[in-house]
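assembly run, all chains below
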Amino acid sequence: MATPTRADAAALDDRDPLAPFRDRFVIPDADLVYLDGNSLGRPSHAALTRLDEVVRRDWAEGLVRSWERWIEWPLAIGDRIGAAALGAAPGQVVVSDSTSVNLYKLASTALDLRGDRDVLVCLDDEFPTDRYVLEGLAAARRAEVRTVPADPVDGLDPSRLSESLDDRVAVVLLSLVSYRSGAYLDLAAVTEAVHAAGALVLWDLSHAVGSVPVELDAAGVDLAVGCTYKHLNGGPGSPAFLYVRRDLQETASQPIWGWWGQRDLFAMGPAYDPEPGIARFLVGTAPVPSLALVDEGVRLVAEAGIDAIRAKSRALTALLVELAEARLAPLGFELASPRDPDRRGGHVSLRHDEAWAVCRALVERAGVVPDFRSPDRIRFGPSALGNRYVEVWDAVDRLVGLMERGEHREVDTGARKVT
Amino acid sequence: MATPTRADAAALDDRDPLAPFRDRFVIPDADLVYLDGNSLGRPSHAALTRLDEVVRRDWAEGLVRSWERWIEWPLAIGDRIGAAALGAAPGQVVVSDSTSVNLYKLASTALDLRGDRDVLVCLDDEFPTDRYVLEGLAAARRAEVRTVPADPVDGLDPSRLSESLDDRVAVVLLSLVSYRSGAYLDLAAVTEAVHAAGALVLWDLSHAVGSVPVELDAAGVDLAVGCTYKHLNGGPGSPAFLYVRRDLQETASQPIWGWWGQRDLFAMGPAYDPEPGIARFLVGTAPVPSLALVDEGVRLVAEAGIDAIRAKSRALTALLVELAEARLAPLGFELASPRDPDRRGGHVSLRHDEAWAVCRALVERAGVVPDFRSPDRIRFGPSALGNRYVEVWDAVDRLVGLMERGEHREVDTGARKVT
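ok done. output:
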């Protein structure tokens, strides 16, 4: 089959039902190919308008009186994320804290709920904070972390997981979409395998939410956390969410007993008496400006529909894989994501010996923004709402050009850089 | 002495060196007397301009590349709070998480540092989240919370504290300025008393920071946390700060092992290896928009100078106390804050049998915003940067008027309200 041309990509854009969504975002430089929406999504116009309302009307004019409205947001926006992107009925999701803090709260909750078990399981290449949080919790709780080997490209082989589970395992923490390879697990099947071993499952949905359909209720998932600044476009450092299945809530206790988890918050009673429902997983005062940004991000996902987003996301990454195999393989790039689109989430990683220099050159010389993941991966995360197919084509084309000109040998790779 | 007249208050404004700072804030309704800056401070014009830059330039244009700058903010802004308002040399303060989460981290740290001790001490009327966090930690760590009685108006009698300390006490958690009464402790003397018992001190500076001078380094304080949305004007739900004395940092470990505390964050190494310094107390991704707002709030405090702020704050509350005793006492109000200005922070509480109804009437009928604290207190927290003396006078005058007209008997007190 012939390698797709730019005209082929443009034809895909022409019949893309989500194409109009691009104009909903603030895109000051239309020539910049931004393929890092899985690290930090773009702001929408609606989000910035809403932020303005929140600070100029709610805060400056309403002042403390606005808390009468704001106070509902952690639960209300949680419900909206649940409905739009998690397959979760109301009353099971809150927006609160960072993903790391929520991982800590829920992994600790899981240890309490499985009080006779003392092993925490995760993959050996799980996202760092997930591994570190479990390690810290294990040290404090005299528990043990057991890591399961996962293929760095294809991710977990489900049969390896079952082999690693026994009656000491309290909880299994897994990313639905791997941060590095994009490997995409089968939520229902893995949840069932974990339950078969008598353990609880804690899903990290950071790279999945807003990109692939997630059906937490249908799969009987116990616990989940996720990030809102990637495909939900909540802005830098926006608060994370957490999910606790309804029937676990009443018996579940989380370790950080803050006033926002207290029944009748402003009664300020003498002893901690947590809310009966999901609100007991709140801790401190909610970050209002960022909550508003998250809300607008979720509304866009709801409007577009997660199935349409997934369909376009699959097609975007498929185009990228096809172009990479045809045009980048000869230049030393290897696909480091699952080739099967059913096993791949919304981003694609390529391995290259000089990945860091290539990444810098793309950003500095080619107007393409991917990101780098140590030690040798370049990660491309096109946004189904914000990116066009021609941008994927242009990114590959610009990359081919800079490699042929050797520009990656000319950039400064010394300074520590985030991307 | 004659009761101060409005002209007396206006004369104080005329010679107020901080008077020009009022124009730095966004004040859409100049007739509204806002006396709840100790719950939620106002936005400054500079803060809203900065927020606009952060979202429109840094986020929308710079996208993920802006993390190269943002990543320094939790420490850099922490240092600025330290210099402007805490008497803390650089490298000891970070902005991170909520006050509740930071209390949890540092109280846990204290228990680890005093491994042979198992008692956590706080006052019986300490702010709810402080008490609840200790209660949760005690339950998890097989420790015990010991509460020390404090006078509901005058606060802690330091001799009562020493009586309550023995060699089981690991940490004493105290608010420098009490959230309800405004009672203001002697930081150095109390710290010394706690140290004399071999315990660590953990100060909650939420109602103190930006309102009264704090000298953490000079007093040899071990640990502290505080809020940035009160006198630092960081906006609703802005992240909190924490302080760990430099010589404790290397041996201190906090319980939530997140990736932002990791040495060389983006190397994403196999095991948790925390930063050697204060950065190990970070957990997850920093909330960038709110950090920018905090930064601008701190800059205003630095520019005005904390001593000038304290001087005006004392004078504002002294005027309020004088007017309350002359004009409100006959209407059933009692002073519920220390009368001695040296023992009072930046807010004044009044007790009244119908406090809740009075509070609603002030907000709804009189254009005065104080706040209510269960069960019978009305709290007035004038801002030295944002309020004028005549506003304090007007607030009392309007309150006298509405009581005389019986308007507090006419408002709806049924609905749950935040203020």
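Chain B has two domains: 6-43+305-409, 71-303.

The CA atoms of residues 62 and 393 of chain B lie 48 Å apart.

not gonna interpret more than that til we talk
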